[in-house]
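_Full entry_
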Amino acid sequence: MKNNQLVRMINTSMMATMSFGLKIISRNFFMYTIIVNSGQSVIAFWPIPIFIAGYFYGPFYGLAAGFITDTIFILFDPSAQFYNLMTISAMIWGLFGYFSRIVAQHFNTKKMKYTLIAILITICSFTQTFINSIQTYFETRSWLTVYQRLAGRIVGLGLTLPILIIVSIILIDRLQKIILNE
C-alpha cells in the first residue's frame, strides 16, 4: 500500500515537473501577438501532464500536480508573483483528468471513450479561459482589457485544443497498458 502511494507521489511530481517545463517552453517559444491589441497569448501544452496525473492517479494527485506546477512557476517566473485564480485554473486540469477516467469507465468502445474525453478536455479548456479572464479583470479592473485579451485566448484555444486532445488521448491509450496493467 505504501509502495503504491510512493509511486503515485513520484509520478505526480514528475508530471508536475514536466508540466512546468512545458509551460516555460510554451511561454518562450510559442507566444504570439494578436493584431487586435490583445497583448500576447501562449499556445500551451503544459496542461497535458496535469490531466494525465488526474486521469491515472485520481483527483487529489491531479489537483496536487496543478498546484505544484503553479508553485514552481511562481518561484521561477518573475511575472508570476502570487497564487491567484490562475492557480485554480491549473489545478482543474487534474480534476477534469479524473472526471474523464470516471466517465470513460462507463463505455465499452474506445471511440465513445475518446469522444467523451475530448469533450471534457474542451470543457476544461473553456473553464480555464473563463477563470483566467476573471483573474485578468481582478488584475486590471477593466472589462475592455478582459475582452481584448479574450480574443487572443480564443485564438490560442483554437490552435491548442486539437493538440491537447490528440496528445492526451494517445498518452492515455499508451500509458493505460503500463500504469494500470491493462
